[in-house]
Amino acid sequence: MRADNRLHNAIGLAMKAGKCVSGDFIVERTLRDNKARLVLLDETVSSSTRQRYERLCQRGPTPLLTLQGLGQ
What we know:
Elements: H1 3-16, H2 24-32, E1 39-42, H3 47-59, E2 64-67
Parallel strand pairs: 1-2
């Protein structure tokens, strides 16, 4: 099993357990409330979206990772 498959499986388990949020509004709110521990973005997001999340993550500071195929 490839490492990216294991990561996607772990993200799926976190979603099912309610430990992960998705969606622009709820992620922004979680970041503004300083409750986020990690932000994952698909590598195909626009540069303006990436910059917005980078600014929000720097205030935390919250790590930001971009992944291939995250939106699938």
